[in-house]
Specification:
Length: 263
């Protein structure tokens, strides 16, 4: 199965890379980040083992750059612009992500795999292991109760439609902790945290382009979905990097920033 996913990813990447050369200028509308001028997140290297428990107790996390989600969308209804923080580390085998969210109403209805956790309180991570806005990326979305949705995206692949390939099912660890009660609109919660451990091997077929090393760069976006009512699917969305035309959703590759692997 691992070979199957590697071959699928490698083939799709090749096709989407060729496609992006021809249609990049026509498919992106409005203001966009310029290739080579994206904001850069410095990913510190973990100096010791990381236990994935949703707690961030290890000393290594003290070296991680802390950034906030300051770009809010879907604010047509009154929403709380709740504080969100993001950290990332790496080593030769894994990427480590840590999300820290203030949240007065913890909500998670989805329980199925590869379904719709993005309709809940959800942490999302999009990445492509090259320093460019390619028309293909990997996606990881997980709600508080750890319902996962992972996929490969082909952005605006056909008739201006974005394709999500759900057959990409890598093995990775996720743990969450929270302070409050889930799916209870009557009380006031405090927040939740989520920690990811994604194997570098999850991107098999791409390492030959930019294998993680000091100075190497990948493109990525981090997203928070914030749902506050059990019986209302409306949620606000916040992102690490700005999206200038949210009508095209959060998967726009030209809106990704960069991560740079550091010591």
């Amino acid at each position: 199965m691992k070979f199957k996913y590697a071959l699928l990813a490698k083939t799709l990447f090749s096709l989407s890379f060729l496609l992006s050369i021809n249609i990049f200028s026509s498919a992106q509308n409005g203001q966009q980040l310029v290739i080579g001028q994206q904001p850069v997140y410095k990913v510190s290297k973990a100096k010791g083992p990381i236990v994935v428990d949703g707690k961030m107790d290890e000393a290594a996390w003290k070296n991680a750059q802390v950034v906030s989600f300051d770009n809010f969308f879907r604010t047509d209804k009154p929403v709380e612009k709740q504080n969100s923080k993001f950290r990332m580390l790496w080593d030769s085998a894994y990427l480590y992500l840590f999300y820290e969210f203030e949240d007065t109403s913890l909500t998670a209805r989805e329980t199925n795999f590869d379904a719709r956790p993005y309709l809940d309180d959800c942490a999302e991570f999009f990445v492509v292991p090259i320093p460019d806005s390619n028309y293909m990326h990997f996606g990881f979305e997980v709600n508080i109760t750890k319902a996962k949705y992972d996929y490969i995206v082909l952005w605006k692949y056909y008739n201006n439609r974005t394709i999500f390939i759900r057959d990409y099912n890598p093995v990775y660890k996720v743990e969450s902790t929270y302070d409050g009660t889930i799916n209870n609109d009557k009380d006031k919660d405090k927040g939740w945290k989520m920690e990811f451990q994604i194997p570098i091997d999850a991107f098999t077929g791409f390492q030959f382009i930019t294998r993680p090393r000091i100075g190497a760069r990948w493109a990525f976006q981090a997203v928070r979905q914030d749902r506050n009512l059990v019986d209302d699917r409306f949620r606000s969305t916040s992102t690490l990097y700005p999206i200038y035309d949210f009508r095209q959703d959060v998967h726009q590759p030209a809106q990704f920033g960069l991560m740079e692997f550091a010591e």
